User: Fold these one by one.
Assistant:
Number 1:
Amino acid sequence: MSEATPETLVIEFRAAEQLLDARDPRGALKLLDTVVAAHPENTAARLLRARAFFLGAQLRPAEMEFQTVLEREPDNAFAHFALGRTLQRANRADEARRHFRLAAALDPRPDFVEAAAFDPPQPT
């Protein structure tokens, strides 16, 4: 097998995006493993890899990748939201709620706010 070049890594990353869109997380992971091995600091590749783990129901690896992304980008609302979904799927609702709320605070998108399940304001 030939050595990965920057060009082939970009091609593999884009192909992994397409495979994930086509709901083929295993295929995406095969390509992303090469990209992440070559550039472990690449947050975009790690986020895509986390999504592939999640879609493939590999919750522990997904959780670890989302946490790695958040260590580097603590203000990444999508990563908080996706980690919340991962924890929710693993029946860890209290932990999930924290990340849903962080996501909604960072980016008040309707799906983030709905997942955060903030208590309605009480009449005064």
Number 2:
Amino acid sequence: METYFWAFVVGGLICVIGQLLMDVGKLTPAHTISSMVVAGAVLAGLGLYEPLIDFAGAGATIPITSFGNSLVHGAMAEAEQTGLVGIITGIFEVTSAGISAAIIFGFMAALLVRPKG
């Protein structure tokens, strides 16, 4: 039960930060999303995002900050194996499945659901 609590709290805090960026910082949704991805990447680069995932589970892996973590994690892992070129290929290798799934499921939803208008 404690795991669910911390996942809810951490995920909620990440969402609150995003909402504050839009409301108080007057950032557009696109700027907010970009900022959250960069924040996740910076935390991953500093080695702080993995402990957050260990602590909060889905509370840290579901929000958009996790995408930044995935980018850095993939780039660093590939760079260790193949060098400088691995930085670019690692980003695409780790994130391609999630992006592809989002595109496919979004397309399928668009075919099956008719918006009211």
Number 3:
Amino acid sequence: MAHQLRDMHGAARAVAYLMLAAGPYNFVTGVLMKLGNPLPEVVALALTSIVLFIVGLICLRRPETMPRLFWPLMPFLGAGVISALNVATRDATLGPQLFYLWPLLYAAMFLNRRIITLTVVQISAGHALTAFQFQEGGQALLDWIAITVAMSMTAVVVVGLRERNDRLRGVLEAQATSDSLTGAANRRAFDAEISHAVAVAGPDDPLALVMIDVDHFKRINDTWGHAVGDLALRTVADALRDAAEDRRHMVARLGGDEFAVLLQAAPYAAVRFTELARARVAAATGLPSGPPSLSIGIAVVPDHAVGADELQRVADAALYRAKEGGRGRSMMAQPAGPLPATA
């Protein structure tokens, strides 16, 4: 849906804690402390307190049972309940108005800007309904302006902090899953992705694993220096990304001069990818050592393997055959053999 939560677990806890606190608070202040009020009013407040407490328990223990629409509507429901309770108790003092902070903070933390804006508008209208009924005109106007401005500024600050936190988290996640030299994914990201990619691959959506070694990379480092070696690695990583074109892919540096590419491709398309990658490396300029050659092993799910571990094993075996065959070439994994006969 259009208004998905940023953090379902956090949102459920926020709603639960509010309801579990608001239910008893409303019961004490609206029922026990006002037993002399008209009976229908006291009964209504008591039932509201019970409902709030029960909803809080559900959100704490079984949040998945709540309708999906409940979560984006929660700030409006919360602000509406607060306004109704303030009107029912004829209380326009500052204390009850502070409860408006909860639906505002909930929206600012977990929902989008449109809902945040609408929440501020509803809070402003709800407070106006209370203030202009139970306060003198001048004081009501001042309180209404103060609450509206305070809620608006709170929303601006919280959203700004949230977005800054999102940017910082994005940077940290990128640093944790990428290779700083080449910009490719690192081993950690590759290990996480290959299991998922193999699980969803099939005859109609094959997955190729292409293992690449830069031939004689130690010689490049020893002869031309590590700066040239680093440039060669960046050149290879760029070529692998470019050769993937529009196919779904992941380029990863597994360590040293070893790269891996997860590619949405059948065997023929995977071979075509390796040809394009070689051509792009060969066309690279600015390398004192000259373009490096590549040894490549290819394996495809489901043609050569069915699991992530098996796919890596047969792709590695194909890579070793390419290196043993003289380097600078590509080898395809052997087709998966028939299943052993069972008794």
Number 4:
Amino acid sequence: MNEQLQPLKKPTRTGKAGRSGTQDDIVYAHIFEAILEQRLAPGTKLSEEALGEIFGVSRTIIRRALSRLAHEGVVLLRPNRGAVVASPSIDEARQVFFARRLVEKAITELAVEHATAEDLADLRKMVQDERDSFSRGDRGAGIRLSGEFHLKLAEAAKNAPLISFQRSLVSQTSLIIAQYESGNRSHCSYDEHMQLIDAIEARNGELAVSLMMHHMDHIDSKLNLDEESASDDLHAVFSHLLQTKGKPARPSAKL
């Protein structure tokens, strides 16, 4: 089983999951990516047996990956009942968004001070990739890239604790959106992201923070209690891995 998971040839973006190439890194990164793309529904049971079969690894490897996800608040480990994808309550969702606003404000202020020309170029490329994904109808990739944008922005802020905190908040936000987003599926985050980059490049901290808060307001305004859009079928979520004759590979986003 030790050579079941092979890395993709596609370039990666932000984050460190999967960078070392260990099996639990790769399993972790695939599940994290599925959460960011809203392909895993809140409350989904994460069967160690099913995941072991999908990824071709031992339950020990699966447990390590699930433990990391639990540490980030996107998986619940239930004694004697197994793991499930977290299903935030309304109160928990509000707490996450409150924390997210505080962190985004701090990250934006620091990015105005510290973002390099290379950081800004990378951010613009991510926004273009996000736009292209939505244009071709790949909503999952577009949502993931939108989340990656905020992780990359945290890196541009040059503050390691904020990067770690943001990683957890972005993944929890994706679960909240999957659970509570309204029927309006329109997305204009790439336009808001590009405006934010322009303000950061101009070193206009007041404008950049205002644009970020408006962006968060836009996300918040689309939430309700009615709709779930992801799947709780593990084999369906990871079907792109099972359909290929090759072995599961590292996901394109090492988040």
